[in-house]
Each structure stands twice: as structure tokens, then as C-alpha cells.
Design a protein that fits this description.
439 residues; Heat Shock Protein 90; 2 domains; 5-stranded mixed β-sheet; rod-shaped; membrane; transmembrane
């Protein structure tokens, strides 16, 4: 604004002086010429808002030989503005033609009035064209350059702002994904701890109840049950200590964001090892020691369908009547499919121990062409509705459903007409093997 005011004042003074000379040379009132010239020159103040009007005014006063500065600054502002280029070229051409005509007529008048050197008409045409182009071309070209550069800078600034906004959105999305990943890991770790520990603790409670029942009648069986309870308790404490140790070490030695992936892998390894010990150690403990089947279940990437016999043996050792039925040709599946199938059966049997003590359970496994189907069904509890029940957090069925759904399978659970409960799952055999063990 300060620059526009200064330019308008200088242009008004110039036009006022030229207006006074024009009025005195043509016999007009000098005061009127000064006022008109000052008003015309002052219009330069509005060059940024109405550049076309300023240029048209400059072209209009060209015959009066006014507005030298007004014409140059007006053409520069017009070329640098956002006015269409065609209009700029047309107005610049009109300005060149007007300046050329006025200059040629002035040269001709001055030469005709003088008595010295008399140049030819071609020389006057050359000088007139040189003056017209010299007063018009430089401001127009400079204005075009400045306008193009300004638009380029604005486009780069807009692009930079857009990239900054995009980076901000990406950062927010990354933060959301990190929060989602942490929540997923918490859920997965909780599910692993529930599957690994809850089953064993449930069996401990069942064996403790059996120990209480036979303590006086059969001391030898009571001693054997006490040994089983002690072994299970020690192993459960060891697994809990391993899992909590992973979390404690990572929180003290690493930042949470950097350690989450390593924690997940290590916790998955711990959970897999614990699950393998459940399949091999506890079941074998109920039958006299580790056997080949248990070792086979422990090897590999975690619990698998080969360990179902030992899993059922654990429940039988705890006093449950369990029947295992396998249909179809047995074969190997992906690690996640086998782990999920094992977990479904394990959690279903754990629920029978908790909610239907003394009930008979039937475990059915069907190997089909494109899927493996599982069903665990139990009858009503023989202890009655008033018998004490093991505490439940209500996460078992939810965890089973999440595991099966993550592999694209179908999970159904509900009460039977006979008063028992049924859990069914169908898992695609070709489920993608992604993520960690038991994820």
C-alpha cells in the first residue's frame, strides 16, 4: 500500500507538470491542466484492483503526451496480474500503436519546424518504432516474468501445504494404526494367557476337588492327585513368570513403540512353548510321564491336532468322561489352522470343567476336503444347579469366535435340547498363514 501511494504521488506530480505544459502550449487554462493531470496520475493508486482501467486511461491520454510513468507502471501491473494473456497482448499492442503514432507525429512536427538536419521518413519511422517498443516492451515482459514467477511460487506453496496436510494425515493414520496394533496385541496376549493358564488352573481345581473327595478313602490316589496339582501349579507359575518377564523387560529397556513387535514375537514363542507343555507335560503326567504323542504335539510351531488325544487324556485324568471321535483321513494343516482347532477343543473342555462338572463330553473332529470341522458337546451337569462352579470371565467363547473368524471360518455355540452345551467350528484348510503363533 505504501508503494502504491508513493507511485501515485509521483505519477500525479508528473502528470500535473505535463498537463500544465500541454495547456499552456494549446492556449488552455493552466490550472485546469494541473488539476486534470494530477487526477489522472493519481489513478495509479488503483492499479492492483483495476489494472485494465489504468492501462486504458494511460492509452487515452497518450495523444496529450501525459502519463509517462502511468503507462509504464500500468502495463507492468497488467502483465503481472491474473488478467487473461490475450487481453494483455491486445492492450499492449494498442499502447505500442498509440505511442508510435504520437512519437512519429511529434518527430515530424519538430523536424518541420526546424532548419537543421532533415532525416528521411524511414528514419523517423525507425526512431518512432524504437521509442514505442522501448516504452512498452520492457514493462510488459518484466510483468509477465514476475507474474509467472509469483504463480509458480504460489503453486509450490500450495503443493507444500498439501504435502504437509497429507503428511499430517498420514501421521495421524499411522498413530491410529499403532494404537490399533497395540490393542490387538493386548487382546492377543490376553487370549494366549487365558488359553495357556486357564485350562491348567481349571484342571488344578478339579484335581483338588478329587483330592478332597478321596483323601481318606484312597490315600494312594490322593497322593497322586496332589502330585498332579503341584506339577500343574509349578508349570502355571513358570509360564506366568515368563510372560510377565517379557513385558517387564521390554518396559524397562525399550520404548513401547520400538519394542511392541519384538514383544509380540517373544510372547508368541512363550505361549507356544507353554501350550506345547500343556499338551505334553500335563497329559503325560496324568498317565505316567511324557510320551511320544505329547512330544510330537510340542514340536513344531505350537499346539496341533496331534495333541488332541493328550488333551482329552488330561480331562479323563481329572474325572471327566470324554469321548474322542475322528472322521476322515487325518492330514496336516497350516500352523494357524491346527493351533486354532486345538484351542477351540481346549477351551470347550475347560468350559465343561467350569460349568458342567461331572458331565459327559463328546469331541468330534472331521477332516474334509477343504475344511476341518470341530464339535464339542456335553450333557447336563451331574452335580446339580447348586454345585459350586469355577469362576469365569466370559472371554472363552469370545476368544474362540475371534480365532475362527480370523481364519475365515464359522463358529456356533449354544445350549442343546438335552440341557447341555455345544460348540461347533468349521475352519478352512487353506486359511492364509499370517502373523504369529496363535494370533
Amino acid at each position: 500500500m505504501v508503494l502504491d501511494v508513493v507511485l501515485a504521488l509521483v505519477s500525479a506530480l508528473e502528470c500535473a507538470a505535463e498537463g500544465a505544459g500541454f495547456a499552456s502550449g494549446h492556449g488552455g487554462p493552466v490550472g485546469l491542466g494541473i488539476v486534470v493531470g494530477a487526477l489522472v496520475g493519481g489513478t495509479l493508486l488503483f492499479r492492483l484492483r483495476w489494472p485494465v482501467a489504468v492501462v486504458l486511461l494511460g492509452i487515452a491520454i497518450t495523444p496529450a503526451e501525459l502519463g509517462f510513468m502511468l503507462g509504464i507502471v500500468g502495463l507492468y501491473t497488467l502483465a503481472a496480474s491474473d488478467v487473461p494473456r490475450r487481453l494483455t497482448v491486445v492492450l499492449a499492442g494498442v499502447s505500442v500503436a498509440g505511442t508510435f503514432l504520437v512519437t512519429f507525429l511529434k518527430f515530424h512536427r519538430d523536424i518541420a519546424a526546424g532548419e537543421g538536419y532533415q532525416p528521411g521518413p524511414w528514419m523517423m519511422l525507425f526512431f518512432s518504432a524504437l521509442v514505442a517498443l522501448g516504452l512498452t516492451a520492457p514493462p510488459v515482459l518484466l510483468g509477465l516474468y514476475v507474474g509467472a514467477r509469483r504463480r509458480l511460487v504460489e503453486s509450490l506453496r500450495e503443493r507444500a501445504d498439501g504435502l504437509e496436510r497429507e503428511l499430517s494425515l498420514l501421521a495421524e493414520r499411522a498413530e491410529e494404526r499403532a494404537v490399533w496394533a497395540r490393542n490387538e496385541e493386548r487382546t492377543r496376549i490376553a487370549r494366549e494367557m487365558h488359553d495357556v493358564v486357564a485350562h491348567r488352573v481349571s484342571l488344578m481345581v478339579v484335581h483338588a476337588a478329587a483330592l478332597q473327595a478321596v483323601a481318606l478313602k484312597d490315600p494312594e490316589k490322593a497322593s497322586r492327585n496332589a502330585g498332579l496339582v503341584g506339577d500343574m501349579g509349578r508349570q502355571a507359575l513358570t509360564e506366568l513368570r515368563e510372560m510377565l518377564g517379557v513385558l517387564r523387560t521390554s518396559s524397562e529397556g525399550m520404548v513401547p513403540e520400538a519394542s511392541s513387535a519384538a514383544d509380540s514375537r517373544r510372547l508368541a514363542e512363550v505361549a507356544a512353548a507353554a501350550s506345547a507343555r500343556v499338551s505334553a507335560g500335563v497329559g503325560a503326567g496324568g498317565t505316567g510321564g511324557p510320551g511320544p504323542a505329547g512330544e510330537g504335539a510340542a514340536s513344531g510351531d505350537g499346539p496341533c491336532l496331534d495333541g488332541l488325544e493328550d488333551l482329552v487324556g488330561q480331562s479323563r485324568a481329572a474325572g471327566m468322561a470324554v469321548e474322542l471321535s475322528v472322521e476322515g483321513e487325518e492330514r496336516s494343516y497350516g500352523a494357524r489352522v491346527e493351533s486354532t482347532a486345538y484351542r477351540v477343543v481346549q477351551e470347550a473342555l475347560t468350559n465343561v470343567h467350569k460349568h458342567a462338572p461331572g458331565a459327559k463330553a463328546v469331541v468330534r473332529v472331521a477332516h474334509r476336503g477343504e475344511e476341518v470341522a470341530l464339535q464339542v458337546e456335553n450333557g447336563p451337569s451331574e452335580s446339580g444347579a447348586d454345585a459350586p462352579r469355577l469362576p469365569s470371565g466370559g472371554n472363552g467363547l469370545v476368544g474362540m469366535r475371534e480365532r475362527v473368524s480370523a481364519l475365515g471360518g464359522v463358529f456356533v455355540s449354544g445350549a442343546t435340547d438335552a440341557g447341555g452345551f455345544r460348540v461347533s467350528a468349521v475352519i478352512p484348510a487353506a486359511a492364509a498363514v499370517e502373523g504369529g503363533v496363535g494370533s
